[in-house]
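Quick one from the shared queue. A colleague (R.T.) flagged Pyruvate dehydrogenase E1 component subunit alpha as missing a structural entry in our internal table.

Convert sequence to structure tokens.
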Amino acid sequence: MIQERTLPTFDTNSIKISQEEGLILYEDMVLGRLFEDKCAEMYYRGKMFGFVHLYNGQEAVSSGVIKAMRQDEDFVCSTYRDHVHALSAGVPAREVMAELFGKATGCSKGRGGSMHMFSAEHNLLGGYAFVAEGIPVATGAAFQSKYRRESMGNEAADQVTACFFGDGACNNGQFFECLNMATLWKLPIIYVVENNKWAIGMAHERATSEPEIYKKAHAFGMVGVEVDGMDVLAVHSAAQEAVARARAGEGPTLIEALTYRFRGHSLADPDELRDKEEKEYWFSRDPIKQFTAYLTENNLADVAELEAIDQKIEKLIAEAVEFATGSPEPGADELYRYIFAED
Ligand SMILES: Cc1ncc(C[n+]2csc(CCOP(=O)(O)OP(=O)(O)O)c2C)c(N)n1
Ligand SMILES: [Mg+2]
């Protein structure tokens, strides 16, 4: 029998969500799931190149955190598993898909591809291919908000930054250095560890002396919490508290979300290392299925309404593929463009 680290069921009576909030979370998770399924299809049809890392199974983390933030005002920083964070942050699906196709209409103008989604318009600080590379970038973004507000007297500079990374990133020095500075300077940042138990083929317990990552925050005097990353309401509630803390100038939070990726590390990974039993345990905790049950059981939505949302998203993604397919590739004469900032 496998022994999984799971948390007590989140008490949904401890929070109140409106129908509108519920449907926003549902729609965002479905968008993430169906977008990634379409990516797999397009990848195997040869429409995109290089490594493509999908987010299936982890949707409750992206939606739960980012939907607790102010879109286009707060900052989001990701990793190479970044498509869904970009979507939750408000980057249009067509721009994410076009980026994956290497097209000039992509959110990084076709120069970035799967691992380098970026959007100045939506305050997406980027996807980063090196493990833990985004952590100092996000910490810097949080520093500039604080500096503008407190040192330059700009009251409006109350932006919060959310920084997403994996369990594998937590044994990298940048993680510890940034936790130290963020606490010391009380930066308005939320570090979100998506602990999906694996770093490619390395099991978290085999690589980590203290596998309960949230506890590492405590060594710095930072608030650190563990949360069921398959329960969007649990994540959302923890994120709302962390956002409020950051916005009030009370400093950072480390949220460790226990989650699981439903596919291999990347689309090039045959996923033969993980036990069938382990996978089945986590598949049975599918965040979208669980939230569908919550919405219907609590009369926040009926099945027909949810199906209508699914269909709307399917259409949106089909249009994104059409847009990406019909978009031009960047011209060879523009090879050197966007390397340096332009006037
Ligand atoms: C600095 C660095 N070392 C090694 C790699 C190779 N690598 C790519 S993904 C990965 C695993 C990271 O796992 P985790 O942080 O748990 O994120 P997940 O893939 O599970 O989302 C590694 C070691 C890298 N990209 N960067
Ligand atoms: Mg991992």
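The first helix runs from residue 19 to 44.
The CA atoms of residues 224 and 254 lie 5 Å apart.
Added to the table.
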